Prior knowledge:
About 40% of the residues lie in helices and about 15% in strands. The chain contains 18 helices and 15 strands. A hairpin with a 4-residue loop joins strand 5 and strand 6. It binds flavin-adenine dinucleotide. The site of flavin-adenine dinucleotide has 32 residues, from strand 3, helix 7 and strand 10.
Amino acid sequence: MNCQGLLRRNHLRNTVAAMSDAASDSLFSALASIVGDKRVSMLSRDLRVYSRDMWPRLLIRRRHGGAIEHLPHAVVWPTSTREVASIVRMARKLKMAVIPYGGGSGVCGGTVPLRGGITIDLKRMDAIESISREELTVDVQAGANGERFERALRTKGYTLGHFPSSIYCSTVGGWLACRAAGQLSTKYGKIEDRVVGLTFVTGRGDVIQTDELARARRGPDWTQLIVGSEGTLGIITSARLRVSPAPEITILRGFSFPDLKTGTEAIRKVMQRGLRPAVVRLYDEVDTFINHVSVFESHSDEAIATDGLCPWPARGAGALPNISDSPSTEKEEMSALQSVSRIGRSWGKRLKETVTATALAHPKIVNSTFGTLANSVSDSGCKMIVGLEGTRLRTEVESQLVFAGMERAGGFRRGRGTRTEMAGSQIRGIL
Ligand SMILES: Cc1cc2nc3c(=O)[nH]c(=O)nc-3n(C[C@H](O)[C@H](O)[C@H](O)COP(=O)(O)OP(=O)(O)OC[C@H]3O[C@@H](n4cnc5c(N)ncnc54)[C@H](O)[C@@H]3O)c2cc1C
């Protein structure tokens, strides 16, 4: 046995005890024969990484010293649909589970290898294969990282319009498998509205393409069957998605409402008039209170100096921030950024952690307690962010109608901006 084999075997002794040395060697060789030995791992440190996603209960348990209960037997990084199909066929022969893995940002424990098995990480399949200017569609591989994908589309003048808060750490395949929604789904639709067709590998290792002419189709809609199936019906290896022209302008406005009910009613009224803001985000009393606290603490020089390292993107630069060394000069941009950066510091952060941990155990009590507390202590009711984007003229007109509608329904204007950053925590900075 070579050095790598020994290292692997030593690591494995404590982790995948159920598999004999001979069986693990043979599994390694079988996988390496498909993807090459650099793209398969049975090292303990790798298996531990792939033992979880962002499921809060599991994360909290681990933080409190809980043992790792479930490990995959192996992790592989295929680069093509053909390789994925071969791995699945091989796993089927061995009667082993396969676990498709995107960014690992899922919050439901979907990638936890309950029966061990082979975790198939699709991140090496991240190419944009083609863009159709006529159809306004893009063909992209399932492992594409969300943020990089959106940035690449922007350079070509398009947007997918899908901005989950996890965009920086999730993949196209993960979005589809989870039926994800994003910050701008009010305008662009959720991921199921953006998908035209899929290529996926079934549990038998067959490759199926679902890109059909919708009206000519008979029988079940395979695309929508696979979307949201969390990897249980097949492994998505690529997708055809609808794109939209990149927006010429984005207009954001902050409002506050006396309570959640008034805010919700306001949203209903605006939407029922046929107006379509890209984002309407209403924070309940707890969230409003916590962010209110965060904004008023930590005014140190050190905080401001650190903030300057991560300026807001230039107007019209795209939906995602650029990180450079040059500090932003605009006063408004800096103050918005400072508010954002302060979230998570000092006792605002500790409060957030406490609330999160307690809320998981007693959500109803915490909500009602903080609902009352927030109103009386912060006196800020519920905050809302409203944003519109698209072509300049249409967006300017529609935004006036939306903002007027919010005011008529009991909202007070709080702040404004015309930037294109849509990440949830950064939106809060505008309020
Ligand atoms: C901070 C944070 C913010 C979030 N914000 C949002 C949000 O705004 N909107 C939202 O909808 N969700 C959100 N989520 C949840 C999560 O990011 C999404 O569900 C995301 O779509 C998961 O993508 P992923 O690539 O990380 O998938 P993973 O976590 O790797 O996998 C998720 C599930 O999909 C399966 N899967 C992954 N790839 C494939 C594939 N190619 N084929 C078949 N099955 C596959 C996995 O087996 C697993 O069951 C958030 C999570 C975090 C941690």
